[in-house]
Specification:
Nucleoside Triphosphate Pyrophosphohydrolase
């Protein structure tokens, strides 16, 4: 989804739990170690011949300062400002919930 702002994360490998995948992906993408907390919500994204389940978690940075390990830009923004960023359709529900304050 080039040109869109996305939440970090990615595919799970065989035998990997969702929280473990998030820890691995955040290390690979942002160079940080995190403690994964509770699930926040989920979304299903569908394209022709493809259905993806996205799981969104609360996580805390335990070590490191986030930086784009894969050349991507990163930015800290207020939750209320999230709707102004172009994002993949699958992120819409999480962005709505964060922007309205339903998820702290």
């Amino acid at each position: 989804m080039g040109g869109l702002w996305e939440f970090p994360g990615g595919k799970m490998t065989d035998g990997e739990a969702p929280g473990e995948a998030l820890v691995r992906e955040l290390d690979e993408e942002l160079g940080i170690a995190v403690v994964v907390r509770r699930p926040l919500t989920f979304a299903v994204h569908e394209e022709p011949g493809l259905r993806i389940l996205l799981l969104f978690y609360e996580a805390w940075i335990a070590k490191g300062d986030p930086h784009g390990n894969e050349g991507q830009a990163i930015e800290w923004v207020a939750a209320a400002d999230l709707p102004s960023f172009p994002t993949p359709p699958a992120d819409a529900e999480l962005i709505r919930l964060l922007a309205e304050g339903s998820i702290p």
